[in-house]
Amino acid sequence: MKDESPRESWRDATKLVREGMSRSPFSETSEALFMTSGYVYGSAEEAEEAFSGARQRFVYSRYANPTVQMFENRLAALEGVRFCKGTASGMAAVFAALACQLRAGDRVVASRALFGSCQYVVAEILPAFGIASELIDGRDLGAWEAALSRPAACVFLETPSNPMLEIVDLAAVCRLARAAGARTVIDNVFATPLLQHPFTFGADIVVYSATKHIDGQGRSLGGAVLTDDQDYLDNQLVPFLRNTGPALSPFNAWLLLKGMETMELRITRQCANAGAVAEQLAASAAVKQVHYPGLVSHPQHDLAMGQMTAGGTVVTFDLPDGKAQAFRFLNALATIDISNNLGDTKTLATHPATTTHQRLTPEERATLGIRDGTVRLSVGLEHIDDLREDLARALLAARN
To answer: Which residue, 209, 240, 258, sits at the end of a domain?
Structure first.
């Protein structure tokens, strides 16, 4: 029998390949895929004990599943926290993380720079249930101080933000939230679990769309909620998930486990490509402005690099002549695909004003800095010269 490996000293690359795995009696090398909805009991007494909680075991895959649990354990170990619950999608994770802890009369303070569906949850769905929401400029610490000068139940933000890559001071906001009696929920999808660790800055809860960099290959939907808060887990999150049913499919969990094995390699290459693309666009006379935390020209570059270990995989830029020029650029791309997804191995481009943030009014988009000429690039693994050439051709075509 081999000695147990010192798991507590494993680096991230090793955790991504090996953490959380539990082998069946067949001693497989790859994580087993348990495609089952239910489980068999040896006796009626055993079933009674399982449902009463006297015996810990799997009872139904809407509650827990061995493959899903391996994914949860691996991601929790990567984040350095005790608890992770998988969900069917990133938005299921966001809604569950918020809704499970909020009641009518509660108040939520959120950064206004949110993904379109997240903004809808905060600004439309929660208020319909009697939960007050206040959206503020997340870059402005004074706005956070004012909003959190009175009690709040929850703070919600994403940093970097989608799509304009605004940065929120995690340590300062988490400190203010705690003083106001609020839990902080951080959407860390753009930074990924490898480039930013919100829990080290005081976050209470972190959410992911695992569809993005964790799978990273355009195959599966998935989400995750992570925390070290036992009370939140046991008395709010788990009952909510168990009784509302946004369960992660075992097959999708297996794909996510496979995606995690190559995650560090992919993100390292994607960040390098994104940095090179950002520099190319910044040097182009055809581009009005480039938004990328890794560029010194980003207004929050120092803060970003104090919280993140790299600039990320997404580059957003503005073309000067609006929607028509942005569409000409997108339609001229030959290698890069038009898609609203991100974090993929393939480089993807989208026009936020007509896709991910279409539901916002023109005034709301303007407040967020989303212009008719704004294009978001999620940079993939292609050879950098092929990306440069495709971008140069499309920029030239967009000017004509």
So the answer is: 258
